[in-house]
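Table S4 entry, Carboxypeptidase.
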Amino acid sequence: MGWLVKALVASILLSLGFEITESAPESALVTKLPGFNGSFPSKHYAGYVAIYKERNKNLWYYFVESERNASGDPVVLWLNGGPGCSSMDGFIYEHGPFNFDPTKTKSQLLHLNRFSWSKVSNIIYLDSPVGVGYSYSKDKSDYNTNDTKTASDSYAFLVEWFKMFPEFQSNPLFISGESYAGIYVPTLASEVNNKNVTKPLINLKGYLVGNGVTDPVFDGNALVPFAHGMGLISNELFEETKAECKGQYFNEAIKSDKCAHFLEKVSEGLRGLNVYNILEPCYHETSTSSFDIGSLPSSFHKLGETERPLRVRKRMFGRAWPFDAVVRPGIVPSWPQLLANSTASYSDDRVATAWLNDPAVRQAVHAKKETEIGRWVLCTDQVGYAHDAGSMIEYHRNLTLSGYRALIFSGDHDMCVPYTGSEAWTKSMGYKVVDEWRPWMSNDQVAGFTQGYDNNLTFLTVKGSGHTVPEYKPHEALDFYSRFLAGEKI
């Protein structure tokens, strides 16, 4: 009966104008993964999607079907930021189907993640832009890119992907991501909104952005009030800085030497802190050239549980908004002076690096060999990236006024893109408050605070979380994620 059902579904899709291709996803099926012993709770697929007629650009994805109801649950596209960081960051360290426990033997590295976002949704992890992660181009000039090209390429990916997976074309689509994906998500959603006029239509319903870069002024002015509110700088220094800078801390607004002097004092006072979570210690990088998956010490805690690894990524500091020049990988800090010379801006991403460069893993996920496209790294330095889209506020305005639902969430202990900036710009939209500031609950505890606006815009904080919310607070993240996708009140 299976073939008859598939034939009937194909007939209906064709009658509705959906395109059915011969490139069935069975060739992309992932049947096993090194480090995991057991059955997958849902189907997994991975591979490349070649975009445009030239087929030079090849974007790699990992697709996890929903463990609940793949045919009816939303499809969610996940994008990590950088710019230049692989979305397998989210797969391994945040909300993927597995937790990675390097205290176990190499053959038992992976175990199922009870807080995986695939519990309630189909989810695509996309390495974007081209040149990031396993994605590659036959034309190396493609590795010089920008916001506009990245959005266009990701839209082209979605069009081709839905042709490969026609059974998901009618599912609701949500676009999600964090950090610099605060640029990726609204620009891509806008591409879908603007170009989605011919069949098969992409059924975009909304988007989610976590601790996302949004606007140079709001993001740039966020850190000083955040540092004061968190007790990281004295009240005297805050009042002096505020008075001298007239409440404007964004670097292009700095016009006096005294203002610059006080901002430097703030910066000095914050050195040595973990910029991605002020509550956590910092990891100082050591050589990993001979690293083996099984060699991590027992102090490297399991992911997805109460205790977390001390994982602070190597990021780019010292670049100012707006980008009028090519920038290199790393989260764009909201306050460029912050920790500019800190020795703590390093990462312990050895688990992901070792696992994703294992030849058996690359073969299992249908990725090109290291000899063909190079070594997988969390954040690549081969992509030259220019920020050309400007502030995202008008993008958000156009999208929400077009009927798309938006959730802007922030870990409230992130100092890289502080919640104070996200709270301020969402308020600046001028929408009517329809759900006044209140706590939201998870596991019968206050998990953070939220405020809802007209036009389906919601701002939400996650109490005690750092920059990568699903990594720090996996249970709470799955709760708000599930409710948002279902259209329920958080």
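Confidence is low (pLDDT under 50) at residues 1-7, 16-24, 284-347.
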